[in-house]
Amino acid sequence: MTHIPTTGAPHPAPVPADAAPDPGPAAAPAAVPPAAPAAAPAGATPTASRDCPACGTANPAESSFCEACGADLVVAARAAGTQPPGASGTPGTPGTPESPRPVEEDAMLASATPQTAPAGEESPLDVGWTGAVPSAAVAPVDDELTCHACGQGRIVDGYCDHCGTPPPNPRDHLVESPTSWVGGVCDIGRRHARNEDAMSLSAAEAPGSRAVLVVCDGVSMATDSHIASLAAAKAARAVLDQPFPKGAGTPDAWAAGAGRALTGAVARANEAVAAAVVEDVPNPPSCTFVAAVVEDDVIVAGNVGDSRVYWLPDAADEPARQLGRDDSFAQEQMAAGVPRQEAETGPHAHSITRWLGRDAPDDLTPHLTTLTATPGWLMVCSDGLWNYCSEAEALRTLLHDAAGRLEEPTPTAVAQALVDFANEQGGRDNITVALARLAGRGSSTTSEATASAAPVEGDPTDG
Predict the structure, then answer these.
(1) How confident is the model at residue 122 (pLDDT cuts 50, 70, 90)?
(2) What string of H, E and C letters represents the secondary structure of 404-447?
(3) Lowest mean pLDDT: which of 272-276, 294-298, 349-353, 372-376?
(4) End-to-end CA gap in the chain
(5) Three-state DSSP class for 216?
(6) pLDDT: is 15 or 286 the higher one?
(7) Which of 11, 199, 303, 442 is a plausible cystine mate for 290, CB 3.0–4.6 Å?
(8) How far apart are alpha carbons 43 and 161 in whole angstroms?
(9) Whole-model pTM?
(10) Coil, helix or strand at residue 149
(11) Whole-number Cα distances in Å, 412 to 119, 177, 402, 432, 434
(12) Quick check: 349 and 390 in contact, CB under 8 A?
């Protein structure tokens, strides 16, 4: 801030630093009495005869400093070659010398005129201030540091400085839509403190041409299972994104290559989970695995654990089905004859018998299933959805009803509707739904003969 002198305050007039020094009494000329100034008429008001060179304000003739900006008028007058009032000679007459005044030898000539500040940062005196003016309303900035809970504070050190709320975790709700015919939603649900599900999707632009859908569900009792699931999903997709050898070029030859790739993807995902956390912990990170690969409407699906793949065709006369089977205690009970509803709601229903991680069992060969798609929906999901709707036929009805209520039933919009359904039922687990819309939108179908020739679970493509 620039210091502004008080108007009219006494201020000795400095002389230029390069002026000749006083030669002393011997060289001093005889003193001449100054001419008396003419008396002003009685009652006359002094005229504003001294303009400030800095701001242009008119000041009384006897002013030493500008009343508006504080500029030194005496210095300005001397620089202009005019005499200030009260000095020797006629006031305002150019060229009339002043009486010398004693000054310090190294005195410097300086102006009290304030420097101009950048636009918007001026002091009131810089801009001829005439009073307070209300500032214009500033819209709140919508960025990643603005608190989404109150909309007023900013995130500082992990919390809102206004309401104290931490920012949302990006993994709490994820949406992926690589193309118009493939999309998915991964949601934290309503009961868990963090989202331990993960998904990774890719697809070519042409409907039904090629897509990869991977979903991994972290085991809740394990340490850092959210890290495990994400590492597994990314590692598996990196393998499955690569072209598969087609052998003789037939769909079944491609399906055999896809089965081998799924087996390799499980091994790679298991390595990624084992490397996710370096420290030795009692319950190392672990997760389930499920994936489906589509190429020219041929589907190959594989899973380890209890995350699932469903095929939900449009035609009512074609049955909906779960592709593969769970590695779980509930699955073993159903194989022994226990009804599905009883097995899947029992106390150990979600105890899995195979998983990925450092303590995984030796055999991680995925359950493989291959089919040729007709018009319908391919779904890859975690148990956060099928907890509330497990049977394939019931799930098909749920999906068709949800799609029918949507103005534009894209895979992402339908997946969100199914996630909403699970949350409305209680959302007691993380929820992931990935969908691919096959046939009916430009994709081709493969003949039944080709489908019957494609490998199924138990064929050599199991690894």
Answers:
(1) low
(2) HCCCCCCHHHHHHHHHHHHHHCCCCCCEEEEEEEECCCCCCCCC
(3) 349-353
(4) 78
(5) strand
(6) 286
(7) 303
(8) 65
(9) 0.64
(10) coil
(11) 49, 6, 12, 12, 8
(12) no
